[in-house]
Amino acid sequence: MKIIVSVKQVPARDSSLRVDAQGKWLEEADLTYEMNEPDAYALEEALQLKEKLGGEVVVLCAGPQRAAQTIREALAKGADRAIHIEWEERAAPDALTTAQLLANAVKPESPDFILTGLQSDDLGYGQTGVVLAELLGFAHATIVMEVEPQGDAVRVKRELEDGWFQHVSLPLPVVLTIQSGIKKLRYATLMGIKKAKTKEVKTIPASQLGIDLNSGLVMERIYLPTRSKKTQIFSGEPKQAAHQLVEKLKFEARVI
Amino acid sequence: MSVLVVLEQRGGKWNRTSFEALAAGQKIGQALATPVTAAVLGSNIDSLATEAAAFDIQKVFAIDDAALEQYTPDGYAAALEQLIQASTPKVVVFPHTYQVRDYAPKLATRFRKSLVSDVVDLKTVSGGLSYVRQLFQGKLNADIPAEGDLQFVSIQAGAFRAAEPASATNPIEQFRVKLDPSAIRSKPEAPYREAQRSVDLGAAPVIVSVGRGIKEKENLPVVEALANALGAELAASRPICDNGWLPMERQVGSSGQTVSPKVYFAVGISGAIQHLVGMKGSKTVVAINKDENAPIFETADYGIVGDLFEVVPALVEEIQKTKA
Ligand SMILES: Cc1cc2nc3c(=O)[nH]c(=O)nc-3n(C[C@H](O)[C@H](O)[C@H](O)COP(=O)(O)OP(=O)(O)OC[C@H]3O[C@@H](n4cnc5c(N)ncnc54)[C@H](O)[C@@H]3O)c2cc1C
Ligand SMILES: Nc1ncnc2c1ncn2[C@@H]1O[C@H](COP(=O)(O)O)[C@@H](O)[C@H]1O
User: Fold this and answer.
1) Chain B: nearest CA to A198, how far in angstroms?
2) Which of A43, A58, A84, A98 to mutate to test the pocket of ligand 2 (most atoms within 8 A of CB)?
3) What is residue A208's predicted lDDT score, i.e. its pLDDT?
4) B149 vs A: CB within 8 A
5) Rg (alpha carbons) of chain B, rounded to whole number
6) Where are the domains of chain A?
7) In terms of C-beta density within 10 A (0-12 exposed, 13-18 middle, 19 or more buried), how is residue B219 classed?
8) CATH architecture of B201-323
9) Alpha carbon B146 to chain centroid, angstroms
């Protein structure tokens, strides 16, 4: 089985998010980067599928040069090789543009499974996997919690709202968008990290994939949301703030 | 030209966020000076179509087909593709539900458009309409101009006040679609719920909920002490349960439990929408977070900006003092 897993590099969760002077994106100098969290789970599922079915796991990533580090991390955890679409992207491309790039890069691979994260932590479209499936003509399922391969088909458990679940069967090839938490994540071993250095990373410039990279939705401006609610903030030393809060809880909320 | 709002039902029951999307659709219709229509899909949906026709809209498209009895992305995308081709709306509006997440990007792709997902607000700047959506799980907003001859937009739950029926009887158009059942690739089984939960957070009067700010499982006693001091139930955001630090049944949010205690403490929780939908009904919300810009403060009544490892023990001490 050929299993592709899409992995995106995103600003680390604890980064301070400062909007740049043009109001188009963030001050990059402030940022450190990491693997998009749901993608780490997609990678884990991909590796376990390979352990069950044999074949190979190929990492697929579109991003600037710095994304090479995230790709290495995925290889160190056990992926076999990678495709890096080198893309000094304009700020915040839309899901269709990204999915078109991924689709064109992945077409020659004819995979059986494509696993993506269900959502990116930065842009949060929750769409790229579904769009990719449509572009490739693959069946898909979203918010997947369990993957049960069944020959040339797959049965998955999907999460629905309010604690409901549903099993769905689909023919291969298939795109699955993976929910966080589905398996316990592995760590890269020292051996894995060493081996990763020798694994193949094929780089393809985004400009060579035949896609208009400057069309699509535009974010005109990004900004900190203004707060509409008057939250009463207690400041000062923790002890003092705690005292003020407890007074409120006692005399207004009356829970103490 | 029109605004088409796709209403969602499952098994003959509305998803209530449909009417929030309808309200947003009505506002978009006003801004663009175009009429609003609505669509209902399914099998045997006459009574739902009649209910939809009572709202302040131009008409309802009822797409009634045996192949739509169960939701599938192939079936829904094909049916709506035909309706859009026939009725040529300018904007198609959806509630941002799990079902919409599953097929709307596919549908938009058929028209080579990107869905503007999870919209929280509308803005008119010098005559032009913009959609506002969130980035970084609510930490930032982005304005996206409503451009193009065909736009796809999904509306975040809770962002608009649901439309009320206007006791009208607007026309219902039965829209016939051609669906090939053999082209529907996914075979869904009946939805189910996991076995009964042993903790019912829904009934707890006070809840202390912990998020990733706690950093490690070994730190959980810090918040447990607060829960004990308050006689509260302990709950958590999703990553805490994903990591196995607390059992799944203590998760609050769209994929966990919905709670409405008298007081909800959000400790080291950022306030992503999927968490908020599970606890917004709380009477009083207290947030403790080191980031003054954390979205949770928009929902909180009381807040302390600070390090939970300093604030929570101080709080426990104060509570014990008060109780003594
Ligand atoms: C389809 C779907 C369903 C989901 N369902 C759910 C759900 O049911 N429930 C749910 O909770 N999430 C759900 N999520 C995930 C959700 O989007 C968020 O990722 C999650 O809620 C974030 O959890 P968090 O706030 O604990 O973590 P983070 O977003 O990482 O926030 C941690 C917070 O802790 C603060 N912090 C860090 N250190 C300290 C300190 N020392 N003192 C004080 N504060 C500190 C930080 O400032 C930050 O605000 C779902 C997501 C998707 C896509
Ligand atoms: N630039 C990218 N490179 C690789 N994968 C991506 C990229 N952008 C999005 N994805 C994948 O698509 C998923 C959903 O992203 P999004 O639609 O932006 O929420 C992510 O979890 C990734 O798996």
Assistant:
1) 31
2) A98
3) 96
4) no
5) 22
6) 2-208
7) middle
8) 3-Layer(aba) Sandwich (3.40)
9) 22
Fold of B3-183: Rossmann fold (3.40.50)
B3-183 and B201-323 in the same fold: yes
Residues 171-230 of B with CB under 8 A from A: 185-194, 205-206, 212, 230
Ligand that comes closest to the CA of residue B214: 1
pLDDT single digits (tens) A151-171: 999 999 999 988 889 999 999
For chain B, what are the domain ranges?
3-183, 201-323
Rounded to two decimals, the pTM is: 0.96
- Strands (E) located in chain B: 3-7, 9-10, 13-14, 36-42, 59-64, 91-95, 115-125, 128-135, 140-145, 151-155, 172-174, 187-188, 192-193, 206-210, 233-236, 263-267, 284-289, 302-305
- B274 and A CB contact within 8 Å: no
Distance set, CA B42 to CA A160, B22, B37, B54 (Å): 18, 18, 17, 19
Domain A2-208 falls under CATH 3.40.50.620: yes
| Chain A residue closest in CA terms to B289 | A233
Element spanning A184, H or E: none
What ipTM was assigned to the predicted interfaces of this complex? Answer: 0.96
What is the enclosing helix (H) or strand (E) of B309? helix B308-323
Q: Which listed ligand is nearest to B251 at the C-alpha?
A: 1
Cα separation, B187 vs B184, whole angstroms = 8
